[in-house]
Design brief:
Structural class: mainly alpha
Radius of gyration: 17 Å
Number of helices: 8
Number of strands: 0
């Protein structure tokens, strides 16, 4: 099976063609499931998060057209859904860790919040840009994938 280019998959979403979901699952399903599983630690819940991600993408495209950042768009949705699943079910650690990061992220969609969001994005990018590749990957594993310190230690040993 040949995976479609992200831009073509987004075109299918824009055309409201259900093939968009099949092609997305074919190309990114295992990665989205792995991301969700790393957060919820349950295979069935991870599959539900993956399916909910496709539904949310369906409802979000349009107005969004994430042609150049499609996986990041999907991963953000999947991560959000998985974190909500944890908040509803269990895992105070993940909630605490995500709350720590969310304190830095503006919630409103006004101009001031947009400016703060852009400044935060630039500050994080500047910070990560000054780190070595290994330290940058450790940061991403901890605060994006929510890996435990033990898992990070094993990965980078």
């Amino acid at each position: 099976m040949n995976a479609l280019d992200d831009s073509k998959i987004v075109d299918l979403f824009l055309l409201r063609d259900e093939e968009a979901i099949r092609k997305t699952a074919e190309k990114y399903g295992s990665r989205l499931r792995a991301l969700a599983h790393g957060i919820v630690c349950d295979r069935q819940a991870a599959e539900e998060c993956e399916n909910d991600t496709y539904m949310e993408a369906w409802n979000s495209i349009p107005p969004h057209e994430p042609r150049t950042y499609f996986y990041a768009f999907l991963a953000r949705i999947a991560r959000h859904i998985a974190l909500n699943c944890c908040r509803l079910k269990r895992s105070a650690f993940i909630c605490e860790l995500s709350a720590e990061m969310e304190q830095c992220i503006p919630a409103h969609e006004d101009v001031g919040s947009r400016m703060n969001d852009m400044a935060l994005r630039q500050a994080v990018n500047d910070f990560l840009g000054k780190l070595s590749l290994e330290k940058r990957n450790i940061f991403i594993r901890r605060y994006w994938y929510l890996d435990s310190i033990a898992d990070i230690s094993d990965r980078f040993a």
